[in-house]
Amino acid sequence: MAANEQQVYNTTTVAETKRPGWFVVPTSVLSKPRFVLKVAEVLLSFVAFILEEVVSNCTSCTPLYVFEFFSCTAFLFTTLLLVLLATTLHQKVGITCWPTLDLCYTLAIGVLFLIASVVFSADNGGSQLEGAAVVFGFLASFAFLVDAGIFVKTSGLPCRSGPRPAPDGPQHRAPEVEKLNANGTE
Description:
The protein has 186 residues and is mainly alpha-helical. It has a domain at 35-156. The protein has helices at 2-12, 32-54, 61-86, 89-92, 98-122, 128-155. Helix 2 (32-54) packs antiparallel against helix 3, helix 2 (32-54) packs antiparallel against helix 6 and helix 5 packs antiparallel against helix 6.
């Protein structure tokens, strides 16, 4: 009897599966090519921010400050987004629309960073540091826009709503056609 109990126990037991580590790429919301692009976005915006911070004198400081704001914002928020999407943390945050959030953020920061780079390139003191910051600003902007383009090409627009399948709950199922046997004789 003990052998049968052991056999029944073994067949109903599921082996423990190995849980993935913290860093898991690709995930359901981030592919490997887009992961590489996001790392490039972080690095390029960081270099643009550092180069802009090293500028000691400005003739027209407003474009410099706008560029500083967008390069710093791009670096910090893209780093946060990268950490969330490339780890299991995105499952623990209460956000369910990661694709929409990712696309909207990436597209918005790409366009705003591009505008800031154009404004800063048009109105700066002409130093080599400012020129280098502008170049890295343009590179980062294009990386964001390419990332958004790849996202749309591979995944489509997440905000488009087509015909949705009917929910599969008990209240939405078709009624049973077959009668139940009341006394087992039919």
